[in-house]
Structure formats: C-alpha cells, structure tokens
Amino acid sequence: MFRLGPSAEIPPWALASPTTFTSLTRTGGELSLMVPAHVVPTDVEAEGRWFCLGIDDQFELDVPGIANSVLAPLASAGQSVFVVATFDTDYFLVRDVAAAATVLEAAGHRVLLA
User: Fold this and answer.
1) Which residue among 10, 39, 97, 112 is the one 20 to 30 A from 104 at the CA level?
2) What is the pTM (predicted TM-score) of this model?
3) Does residue 86 carry a pLDDT above 90?
4) Hey, CA dihedral for 64, 69, 52, 50, is it positive or negative?
C-alpha cells in the first residue's frame, strides 16, 4: 500500500497482477494504491505488509451491518483494519491474518485462507 500525488500517473507495474486484489483510489489529495507486494519495485516506499480478507458474497449497497460484523470483533481484539468497499462486496486488510481469522471465527464467521 502506498500513495502518490493527486495528479500522478498510475505506474504500469501497479496493474501487473489483474487477478489479485488491487485498489486504486484518486482523491483531491492523493493517488492511493493497494497492490500485491510482489509487484512493487524495491525503490518504492510502501506501507508494510497487509493481508486481504474479503466477504465471499455479493450484497446490495444499502444492506446495513455487513462491515460492522467484521470490524467490531477485530476492533475489540485490538486488530488494525483498513477497509476497501467495492460495488459488490467489502475487503478488510489486516496486519496479522492468523489472529484476524481466529477472532472472526470466534465471532461466527467462516474464514477460508488460501
């Protein structure tokens, strides 16, 4: 995960892994890129390793409580979480995927790790 200036071009290598989680968000203040670690050049300063957990289901945009059912138990356990929502589902980036999986399973979620 890293950021560039708001008018920066998207680096071609950022799109090099189209079948894995990639998120590019441009705002008035930044271009934020979440890409697989293996595509980031060694000379690019990136924000540590995060692991992506996703909800394996599609739901309507206005269904309440979906993200909270994941965030609340993780927050209670002191886990840092970065959330990325798409049109179809939500993704949760965590630092410690094993600990997050344990917390989520205890909260009633089924967690499948690849």
Assistant:
1) 39
2) 0.84
3) no
4) positive
Measure Cα distances from 20 to 5, 16, 77 in Å.
24, 10, 28
Query: d(Cα 85, Cα 83) in Å, to the nearest integer?
Result: 6
> How many other C-beta atoms are found inside a 10 Å radius of the C-beta of residue 24?
12
In the chain, the domains with their CATH numbers are: 1-43 (no CATH), 50-114 (3.30.2130.10)
Using the structure block, give the residue that is written with the tokens 């680096």: 11
Query: pLDDT value at position 103?
Result: 96
Mean pLDDT estimate for the chain:
90
pLDDT of residue 104 exceeding 90: yes
